């Protein structure tokens, strides 16, 4: 008999959307449609600590959305970011929508990543970032998955 994994009430799934400079405009529309409020304040690219080897951001790029989250229906959140052309990001069908998983533990993120990334591309193994434990991959079927275990407050 197959075994199943039981997930806690903390684990969740979100839909992550990428934009080329108009994330805030899109999310303001979605906010009005769903009549909800941000899950947390909008984080701007300029709020991000400068990473080693990362190019300096222009003033316009610093104002772009690094992360926004909005509850929609049935406990689902949509999240989004602006892609930066200066960092080689180019929006295209296939990288504009991501299923974002928030497992309870790093070990669970690693397990799911290992299974979904086999035969995949554009993979970044989960690792520690300033906001939490994060990784991403495009599975062999062309579906983009993100793994994020937020830092405990």
Overall domain count: 1
- Molecular shape: globular
What order do the SSEs take from the amino end to the carboxyl end, as H and E? EHEHEEEHEEE
Superfamily (CATH H level) name: 2,3-Dihydroxybiphenyl 1,2-Dioxygenase, domain 1
Let me know the number of strands. 8
Strand portion: 25-35%
Notes on the protein architecture:
The structure is a single chain. With 153 residues, this protein is an alpha+beta fold. It has a single domain, classed as 2,3-Dihydroxybiphenyl 1,2-Dioxygenase, domain 1. It has 3 helices and 8 strands, in the order E-H-E-H-E-E-E-H-E-E-E. The chain has helices spanning 23-34, 59-63, 106-117, and strands spanning 12-19, 43-44, 65-71, 77-82, 97-102, 121-128, 132-138, 144-150. The protein is globular.
Write the SSE topology.
Elements: E1 12-19, H1 23-34, E2 43-44, H2 59-63, E3 65-71, E4 77-82, E5 97-102, H3 106-117, E6 121-128, E7 132-138, E8 144-150
Parallel strand pairs: 1-4, 5-8
Antiparallel strand pairs: 1-5, 2-3, 3-4, 6-7, 7-8
Considering the chains and any ligands shown, give keywords for the structure:
153 residues, alpha+beta, eight-stranded mixed beta sheet, 8 strands, 33% strand, globular
In short:
This protein is of the alpha+beta class and 153 residues long. It contains 3 helices and 8 strands; from the N terminus they run E-H-E-H-E-E-E-H-E-E-E.
């Amino acid at each position: 008999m197959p075994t199943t994994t039981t997930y806690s009430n903390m684990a969740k799934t979100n839909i992550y959307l990428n934009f080329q400079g108009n994330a805030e405009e899109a999310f303001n529309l979605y906010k009005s449609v769903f009549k909800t409020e941000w899950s947390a304040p909008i984080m701007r690219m300029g709020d991000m600590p400068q990473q080693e080897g990362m190019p300096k951001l222009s003033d316009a790029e610093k104002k772009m959305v690094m992360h926004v989250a909005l509850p929609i229906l049935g406990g689902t959140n949509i999240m989004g970011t602006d892609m930066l052309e200066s960092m080689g990001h180019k929006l295209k069908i296939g990288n504009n929508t991501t299923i974002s998983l928030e497992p309870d533990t790093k070990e669970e993120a690693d397990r799911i990543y290992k299974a979904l990334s086999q035969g995949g591309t554009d993979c970044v193994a989960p690792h520690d970032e300033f906001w939490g434990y994060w990784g991403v991959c495009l599975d062999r079927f062309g579906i983009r998955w993100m793994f994020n275990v937020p830092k405990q407050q």
